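We now fix the convention by which a protein and its fold are recorded. The integers have meaning only within a learned vocabulary of local backbone shapes. A record is reproduced here so that you can trace the correspondence yourselves:
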Amino acid sequence: MELEEKSHIEMPDESLLLRYITGEVTQEEKLLVKEWSRKDTGNEELLIQLARIYYAQKTQQRIKNRDTEAAFRIVNNKIKKKVRRVFLQRVAVAASFIIGVLGIGSFFFQYSGLQESFLPSMITVESNDNSRTRLVLPDGTEVCLNSGSSITYPSHYTDSERNVTLTGEAYFKVTHNEEKPFVVSTLDKKYQIKVLGTEFNMQAYGDDNVIQTTLIAGSVQVDIQGKDTKTVLSPSQKAIYSVQDNELQVVTANTDRETDWMYSRLVFKKTPMPEVLARLSRFYNVEFDVRNKIINTYTFTGTFEDKPLYQVLDYMRISSQIDYNITYQKDEKGTKSVVVLRR
């Protein structure tokens, strides 16, 4: 009797479904579409498929003209309001229905184009120099990018893993999902961090010979291509991987110090000068020209929060008797600041 009742339920016309997704329906029309979708799980899946395609296209259009992080958050909030859960099954059945709907305005596609719309597009977010960028990934994972860093991720996850690629430094607060591990890759996937749901900081700048991963909460697994053993970190542990030596070392870390950069804070405690200059270079987007090599043998101690570069350099001059002057050089990318250090 139920099967007979379902067969007599008429499918709403395409324009009504489209207006339902965009929220431009009357209360009566809204109830009509809801009743139709609740009668059969297949109907609900078709409606969700259409909603995802609609918002995916809106996302691509907005990414071209707006800040990537802001555009994604707007679209992501709309999807959360309209779609309760994501179904990627019954694609073949959905395709035949959606072809008709996509005949409206900008939704006109051929069947082959429709199939491609289900494939995720890759999105790259770059953090501007001398700034930090926060974003939310499609699964709800929160990311904070340090200056001069970038992350690449798919518009939606369809594989068995949630894969992203990092260049530079980022803090991750990963949404838990046991069925889909979250994987951060660098060095063309030679070095990977795999987690289910946790918080950690990762540093992998392209010009460095060291990759560092500090675990804040939960657990992470470090995978290095060519090594049979898997290293699992516990909270407050840091994995230091030497690219040149292909060696991995695990040490205890101060998690507060590892994440100071997120709050525009620099903390040094008897830190070797080469490391100090590297951090200052990334934080303020400048280059250092050390004229006296003995400076590289010094250590430096100091805490700076929301301070301009010249104040840090003035303190360095007083505490370590290092003189400086700032010059400007032009290259193919524009004008860059160079700090010349002398003893």
User: Anything to note?
Assistant: The longest strand covers residues 162-173. Residues 2-117 form one domain.
